[in-house]
Design a protein that fits this description.
The protein is an alpha/beta fold. Helices cover 51% and strands 13% of the residues. A five-stranded parallel beta sheet has the order 2-3-1-4-5, with helices on both faces. The termini are close together.
Length: 172
């Protein structure tokens, strides 16, 4: 496990999981939200984002946390480990609502408690119907030669991290 991608619905806890994995493994961590977004809420173009991800995947070791469909296949083609936080919609919705008003190391701004982006909320509510099948198809396409972990809940993900910390998960 040297080149890891962590994907899943917004609110699933990708960034929290990735920070914990980073703390255990020491692998460099690159949250895609920090690469794409600026503090003034402007963002890189798709082409700029792809160029930044190309630079990241050229390295020998990394954890890249985030979805960004335009970069997902590039990351999958270069990783040795795919971790998919495949959680129920309710868990992810609760996740996005709970983090509002909280400073996060993976985002360059704090989401206001009293403002909710309806498009973003809708993307979370529709993720399992719209995006999940695409993600599963991509995982299937790139599964050969890679370790693939699909967790159905936070408890499974936490147990996996515990196994890595104790050395029970085989290293590549």
């Amino acid at each position: 496990m040297k080149k890891v991608i962590v994907i899943g619905c917004p609110g699933s806890g990708k960034s929290v999981f990735s920070r914990q994995l980073h703390a255990i493994t020491g692998l460099p961590l690159y949250p895609l939200d920090l690469i794409r977004w600026r503090a003034d809420k402007t963002f890189l173009t798709k082409e700029q984002m792809l160029e930044e991800v190309r630079k990241l995947v050229a390295a020998d070791e990394w954890i890249i946390d985030g979805n960004y469909g335009a970069t997902m296949e590039l990351r999958m083609a270069h990783c040795d480990t795919i971790i998919f936080l495949d959680y129920p919609t309710e868990v992810c919705y609760e996740g996005i609502m709970a983090r509002r008003g909280t400073a996060r190391p993976d985002m360059p701004w704090v989401e206001p408690v009293d403002e909710v982006d309806p498009e973003f909320v809708d993307s979370v509510l529709q993720y399992n119907a719209v995006n999940r099948p695409i993600v599963l198809e991509r995982i299937q396409k790139y599964a050969d030669g890679r370790e693939v972990y699909v967790f159905q809940g936070r408890e499974e993900a936490a147990a996996f991290l515990d196994l890595i910390q104790t050395g029970s998960v085989p290293e590549e």
